[in-house]
Model the fold of this input.
Amino acid sequence: MRRPARRLAALAALCLLVTGATADAQGAPALELQLPPAAVQLAEGPLVRGVGVLANRELRDLLRNGFPARLRYRVELWSVGGVFNDLERAVEWNVVVRHDPLDNTYRVARYAGDRVAQLGRYAEFRDAEAAVERMFRAPIAPRRRGRSYYYAASLDVETLSLSDLDEVERWLKGELRPAVRGRRNPGTAVTRGVRTLVVRLLGGESRRYELRSPTFRPR
Done:
């Protein structure tokens, strides 16, 4: 069987798998943020991670069938004003998880801007999940004393996206800069047509988590 035909067959099987799946019991996924100690709040940003956000059977099935999961993090620093609060700065980064069918492993990487950090290759999904759940220190901190601040964080978990599929494929081939900057491979009409069908069957699978830190005042 030719490679395109194999891919189409796998996609068709995935459609049947996903539409026939039932929701399984799961814990409460969450976004966590830890403020640094008061003495270093002008030098260090908060520690951030998502916990249990990949603990979903449908998502794991998608990963095993070659569809990546992307975790999009955003942390905003707000200063507290008398009437209105002000957005001081914001940072974003992404964590990508992809199953490699050639050696049956999961690849995990984090990238922000043009910087990519490989978080490892894992034979077991639980180990890849543990890598995803490592704390990451957001590169953002107040620059002035004498004001009150808080962080607002969000996490979008995208289990399937046409643009993500193209970008991650290029990232896996070593084309890091195009993937980060979003210059995408248009793909073939047949491949995109099947992917669009899968997206519609899944209902545009995506989850969002948000939180706000306690207010703090750097020393």
